[in-house]
Amino acid sequence: MSTTRGLTSKERQRREDRRLAAVELFDQGVPQAEIARRLGVTRQAVHHWHRLWQDGGRAALASAGPPGARSCLSPEQIETLKADLKRGAVAHGWQTERWTVPRIRVLIHESTGVWYSSLGSLWMFLHHIGFTCQRPEHRASERDEEAVRQWREQTWPRVKAPRRASTPGSSSRTNPPPP
Fold first, then answer.
1. Where is this region: Disordered (predicted)?
2. pLDDT band at 47 (very low <50, low <70, confident <90, very high)
3. Domain closes at, from 128, 144, 165
4. How many domains does the chain have?
5. What would the pLDDT profile of 74-94 be if each residue is shown by its tens digit?
């Protein structure tokens, strides 16, 4: 049994097109073994498609779309959420500009009434609508990048310990290295 998780919409469309091509061949009376050969699939797959086609017609072989639960938010609510997230956390009353998944859950609940009980599923939803995890760099506001660069290039090479010359040796206390 194969899984369709992780397929792109293009790949799902390609698979649906192959099933619908099989429907055309069913209509023409082409044997199932020949359909399998032409489409590059197993005979079992063609047999399964044929049964579905007999029971439900062409619509039975249409793609069901991406796997998983449907979003609790309407497309309009999703667009509003994207706009709210782009406005920033401070604009919504938080002290810092950093969005966290728990903060986003509260924002969604306040604006739509939908409560995501699982932070993991909310994170997957955010990823699905195009948001990625961003980890801010913590740097002192007084940091002088030019001074750091000069120290790395000029001071550090002078103060670091020089490498020892390579000599034969042994890690054993009882076996000294050969002369």
1. 138-179
2. very high
3. 128
4. 2
5. 889 999 999 999 998 999 998
Does residue 166 register a pLDDT over 80?
no
Q: What ranges make up the beta strands (E) of 15-123?
A: none
User: d(Cα 145, Cα 124) in Å, to the nearest integer?
Assistant: 37
Return the exposure string of 26-56: e unless at least 16 CB atoms fall within 10 Å of the residue's CB, then b: beeeeebeebbeebebeeebbeebbebbeee
Closest CA to 123 of 115, 114, 132, 110: 132
- 15 and 46 inside one domain: yes
Query: Is the model's pLDDT at 4 over the cut of 50?
Result: no
Listed in sequence order, the residues at least 6 apart from 132 whose beta carbon sits closer than 8 Å to its beta carbon are none
Q: Are residues 50 and 93 in the same domain?
A: no
Query: Beta-strand (E) ranges in 66-179?
Result: none
pLDDT for 171: 67
